[in-house]
Amino acid sequence: MGSWSEYVANVKSIPRAAWESLVRHGPPVTDRSRAEAVFQNLFLHIHSTRVHRWSLRWSYTMGLGLICAASFVVLTVTGVLLMFYYKPSMALAYQSIKDIHYVVPTGRFIRNIHRWGAHLMVIAVILHMARVFFTASYKKPREMNWVFGIVLLILTLALSFSGYLLPWDQLAYWAVTIGANIAQSPREITDAIGITRYLDIGGFQKTLLLGSRSVGEDALIRFYVLHVVFLPLLMAVFMGLHFWRIRKDGGLSRPADADRRLGPEEKDVTPVFTQAPKKSYGLMAVVRGTSPNVGRGPENTLPSWPHLVTAEAAVFMFTLAVTVAISFFLDAPLKEMANPLVPENPAKAPWYFLGLQEIVSFSAFAGGVLLPVVTLLGLVLIPYLDREPEGVGDWFGAASRGREVALRSAIFGLAAVIAVEAFAIRFGWLRSWYPGIPQIVITFFNPGTVLTFLYMAYSLWVIRWENSTRLGAIAIFTCFLAGFIVLTLVGTWFRGPNWEFFWSPSRWPVH
Amino acid sequence: MKKLLLASSLVTLLFLVASGLSENVFVSWKGYQKEYSLLLAGRTKDPERKREARNIPIELHQVVVPDLAAFDRCVTCHRGMDNPLMAGAPNPFRPHPGDILSVHPTERFGCTICHRGQGAAVNFREAKAVDSYWDYPLLPQELLESSCGICHDPKAMAKTGAPVLAEGARLFEEKGCHGCHRLGGLGGSLGAALDSAGLRTRHQLVMTNLPGEKTTFRWLDLHFKDPQGIVAGSLMKPDYPTDEEARALTVFMLSLQADRELPDRAMGRDRHRLLSVGHDHGERDGRTLYDRLCRVCHGEGTLGIFDKHLGRFVPAIRNPAFLASVDRRFLRANILAGRPGTLMAGFEGGLTRPDLERLLDFLAAGAPLPELRDQAAAKRPAGDARRGAAMFARQCAGCHDPGEKGQVAPTLSSRAFQENAGDAMILATIAGGRPGTAMVAFSGPGGAGLSDAERSDLLAHIRSLAKRRK
Prior knowledge:
Distance between the termini of chain A: 89 Å
CATH topology of the largest domain in chain A: Cytochrome Bc1 Complex, Chain C
Radius of gyration of chain B: 32 Å
CATH topology of the largest domain in chain B: Cytochrome Bc1 Complex, Chain D, domain 2
CATH architecture of the largest domain in chain B: Orthogonal Bundle
Shape of chain A: globular
Helix content of chain B: 40-55%
Largest interface: A-B, 35 and 36 residues
Shape of chain B: elongated
Structural class of chain A: mainly alpha
Structural class of chain B: mainly alpha
Strand order of the largest sheet of chain A: 1-2
CATH superfamily of the largest domain in chain A: Cytochrome Bc1 Complex, Chain C
Number of domains of chain A: 2
CATH class of the largest domain in chain B: Mainly Alpha
CATH superfamily of the largest domain in chain B: Cytochrome c-like domain
Order of helices and strands of chain A: HHHEHHHHHHHHHHEHHHHHHHH
CATH architecture of the largest domain in chain A: Up-down Bundle
Number of domains of chain B: 4
Oligomer: heterodimer
């Protein structure tokens, strides 16, 4: 009978026993159980069990990195849902998008989320990069994580661009046609030297991208595979690396005197160390570098559960809320079915490439290859060119005058880009004065290269004048950001048919 | 933090529910189907049928006709299309008017092959697809006949269902549209070829000056009424058609879809004939050819005309004096290659050789028109181009100013003229003039009294114009 009552009791307590076998620690009310909540959970154990109070400040991170990650999750889920209905072939692709739009239950909404989420992610990635830069968080020991971040930026843009072709509408077709011609632009150089016959880098790149000479079936399947398998996998790998390095590099960056500046914590915050730790931190002592707890106690840290986890959940839900709100009211664009006989005018790349397309309108090689490569190379090199240890963890942090130099650089950067653009729009460029001029001259002398030269010269001058590599870095980063924003705005709003200047899209000649 | 989490979660939930409802529950087609089943139940007497009608499942319907690329969901709302019980019911429930569906059953042809519009859409605004990203918006009812012309011969439809289309085809020929526009292998090259005019999208037409909805059919209609008002600087002659004429022409234009790939079953004898011999079935005698190709600019061709619309002089090509001075070779070359620098564009490719010879026979009007005129007259002492130039400036430049492009009279320096006008023709024209045109006789009885030598001087000068072109 004893075993019978035990059996009954077992049946009654199945839910509790199942729960306990799933969550093998008590309710997260003690320091120990909170730590266990994090490190015993596969999905949470990427966090450290305790997190520094500096890292939890909104004004410091603004949750931007999390927004990027959250967008990626949202895009993966909606993307997989779309894959159930999308058919990657020229004959069926457009019709399948129309079916998703009209027939698939909530298909329109899911596609909208996917489209707007992608734009949101690009914005968040750029802002996150700016945050990391301006808080000097790329410095030792986080140099390589900054480089991983640049890789993630490239992957984000590649993912967004490869998804652009899939609806197979006019917007997609002509944007990718432009992209393919940019890939072909090294011919500007090889043509000028006269070696295109022997070494056709541009033609090779274009064929590699499209799988044929023009945007067609091969390009579509290529972009599809890149978009749904290859790039997301790479992205996941690099995201893993990125997160892993955050922990290995000692958590988010913070100033050396963060503890002093934070002061005593607020009353209602879960207190620090309610009990003596039962877990040994001895292992941490052998970890290389300056992990948060090496050589001292974990003062000023809070348990990741609930502080960090709640914050992350809030950012995730906030990202989702913004995305669904936009997606409810605004439909993702879908133009007429791709028609190679009816060119879009103007044919515009996705917005984040319009700054480059503005330069491409002078020289495809300069805008599509030269400047992006120079910019990305510069970004990668920043942590190795500027190794001053001061200013880490502070907005516009530097040994001195970081904020002032950032402001001055912003003004210079804006003034320079507006002046050069206004000149080019008002008076034209070399081609309008000397119609017979060889293209190679414009390849190396156009508004884009002129701006790059001005910005580089300015930042070198700042390095010499202020005697600080950090201030020089602030100067060039701020200038490039200003240039990117203005050129993107010009490309988006002020360029109409035939890439001519218009004060607003409403003044375009209707065609 | 927790407040943000709560608020964001609630907002997310709200929009998820809202979009789920708006895309799946509150959709217009479900409402229409409910209304339809009630209407149908009300119109049947038989209780069994009544119950059936009330219990019609509410679901999406579509007609898929792969070889016509039709995925038409119109029938999702238009439930009563083939149900005579719904006669007199309001749209979208009423049966299809006429007996067209008995010959063109929906399941074999779909809806959009005739009506255009976006068949995939399941609400009326997007099915109509006006001013949206769709190439072929729903055709207004009064233009529907245009779709008959995709497969059928317009002229054969005058009494069988498409009188407006047939009228449009007739007007197109009557008004001389072929003079500038090529269609079915016949016509000039000054205007756009129209074989697939009905397939053009709004992005292929200049919509800047079109008020209101930017559709190709509104563009066509207004363009027929006021070409220059829609396309600034258009050379098309305003014909001031009536509303009915403009509509008929619009219908005919929309029916022209030669480039459209159709399955064999839709390629009746009619379409084969249209695509191979043209809308006039290849019936082209000299008079007809003249009326269709030449008349719109040259009029009857016996009098020189100053065309106010074109702002230039149009030669009298049926003038007996003109015909007496030219030969077939000259006329043929001018017709095929055109007259560069003038609005006379070449008809090469828009006129078959037999048609061309028939047209020449008509121009000659029974008079002898030799293949090549005797050039013996040219064997005379060469004139002095310098003296000729002075005379040309005094006597001829007023009309034949070589600096201007044929403003009043033909340009004499053009290659077509220089290569094809024989010396004999030029001398004869100077001597005898062109009765009925501004070109008067410069010698002989009643002429201005130029001697033979002076005429030779002029000829030498005119020939020197050719060299100056280079």
